[in-house]
Design brief:
Elements (H helix, E strand, L loop, with lengths): L2 E7 L2 E6 L4 E4 L14 H23 L3 E13 L7 E13 L3 H15 L1 H8 L3 E10 L4
Parallel strand pairs: 5-6
Antiparallel strand pairs: 1-2, 2-3, 4-5
Helix pairs in contact: 1-2
Length: 142
């Protein structure tokens, strides 16, 4: 896996993934940025959420659950001192669908956390307290 990050100006950078996709990162105005893109630490959080959500959806589809929507709400705390690393991250999955089995949703979240999500597991290995929860939203049959 490869990526490139190129400085544009002030506190703005563009990152390009090895697969050819780009994203703009920028700092707050207080740091010389223009607030025109996500912060680098936000990118880490978003990457972790994307990695884990991909796992949860894949596992639920393989177990033939009727998933219509899934999102993960991430809430992180950072250290007050430099380096301002993540100290705690909570991941709350909100899974919507028809006749979803709670045991299957719980299993999917657990498997992602304990076995499949490289980003989440890496954060825990670095000493970040990572917690997981879920909510099931039953949709009316149409």
């Amino acid at each position: 896996m490869k990526a490139t990050v190129k400085w544009l100006d002030n506190a703005m950078f563009v990152g390009e993934s090895g697969s050819g996709h780009s994203v703009v990162m920028d700092g707050p105005e207080s740091a010389g940025g223009r607030n025109m893109g996500v912060r680098p630490m936000e990118m880490l959080l978003l990457g972790m959420g994307g990695c884990s959500t991909f796992d949860v959806i894949s596992i639920l589809k393989k177990s033939r659950q009727q998933v219509v929507d899934c999102r993960v709400e991430l809430e992180a705390e950072r250290a007050d001192a430099v380096p301002s690393v993540f100290t705690r991250i909570n991941m709350k999955f909100v899974v919507s669908g028809h006749k979803l089995k709670e045991a299957q949703v719980k299993r999917a979240v657990s498997l992602s956390a304990e076995k499949y999500c490289s980003a989440s597991i890496m954060m825990e290995a670095a000493g970040v307290e990572v917690s997981h929860s879920y909510e099931i939203v039953e949709l009316d049959a149409e």
